[in-house]
């Protein structure tokens, strides 16, 4: 009996060690790149690059609207690359907003490996580049899923004119515990993205968008984060759509909500 218990303990410890060592492969799903020129994604698109404080050179696409004084920084989720966010960039351009799409380290042909600290540095570098563009006076952040957590952290350091969060979560351990209730994810995870602890400190207009059939970030989790935020804020529930549905990225209801929000927030005058 002691031997059997000992074997089970060893197996459990080995399993936990594997989860610890491989956890970032279960969080980040980058498309490796490289990507085509920005102009192939949208007419007039520009290929841009900028360097993070820790020396990582990142690539992005800038879609400028001539004469625009406002721009949106798009913080993507944990999968794919910036090409998947072109529909929201095109829609924001039609609203008169310039847009910066960028990829985190390890995504879209960028060097490095993703981590919570690394993605925060990447977002800071992207925001600094965008803020330095001629004519840009106001910047909004759009964060989707994991990128919503990146945007929330960035907003605590560099408040935007407006903050849009699509399918945001309270914290990564909360998401992990939802999907892996049999694992001690709350103390295993190195990357935590504690948006619920940060959002209450923000004093910027907030729009939260969630789908009621989201099977990755449960909608009540997005609502809980929203409820922890201060006014002014708005919550938009999109019925019948899941986490990766195009309708939740650039569907009619989502775009109508964004259009009204960016106007009311002062991002567009």
TrEMBL record:
InterPro entries: AB_hydrolase_fold, Hydrolase_4
Species of origin: Mycolicibacterium flavescens
Domain Serine aminopeptidase S33: from-to ranges: 68-179
Listed SUPFAM superfamilies: alpha/beta-Hydrolases
Signal sequence annotation: none
A Pfam family annotated for this UniProt entry: Hydrolase_4
Protein known as: Serine aminopeptidase S33 domain-containing protein
């Amino acid at each position: 009996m002691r031997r059997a218990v000992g074997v089970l303990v060893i197996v459990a410890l080995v399993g936990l060690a594997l989860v610890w060592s491989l956890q970032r492969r279960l969080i980040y799903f980058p498309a490796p790149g490289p990507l085509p020129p920005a102009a192939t994604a949208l007419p007039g698109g520009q290929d841009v690059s900028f360097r993070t404080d820790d020396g990582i050179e990142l690539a992005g696409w800038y879609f400028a609207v001539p004469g625009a004084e406002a721009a949106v920084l798009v913080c993507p989720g944990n999968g794919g690359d910036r090409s998947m966010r072109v529909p929201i960039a095109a829609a924001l351009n039609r609203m008169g907003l310039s847009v910066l799409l960028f990829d985190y380290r390890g995504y879209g042909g960028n060097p490095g490996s993703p981590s919570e600290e690394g993605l925060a540095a990447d977002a800071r570098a992207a925001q600094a580049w965008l803020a330095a563009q001629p004519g840009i006076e106001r910047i909004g952040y759009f964060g989707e899923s994991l990128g919503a957590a990146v945007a929330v952290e960035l907003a605590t350091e560099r408040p935007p004119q407006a903050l849009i969060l699509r399918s945001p979560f309270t914290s990564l351990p909360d998401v992990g515990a939802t999907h892996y209730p049999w694992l001690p994810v709350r103390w295993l995870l190195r990357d935590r993205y504690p948006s619920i602890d940060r959002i209450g400190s923000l004093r910027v207009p907030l729009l939260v968008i969630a789908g009621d059939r989201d099977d990755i970030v449960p909608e009540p989790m997005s609502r809980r984060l929203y409820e922890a935020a201060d006014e002014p804020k708005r919550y938009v529930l999109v019925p019948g759509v899941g986490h990766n549905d195009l309708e939740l990225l650039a569907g009619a209801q989502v775009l109508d909500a964004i259009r009204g929000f960016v106007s009311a927030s002062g991002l567009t005058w």
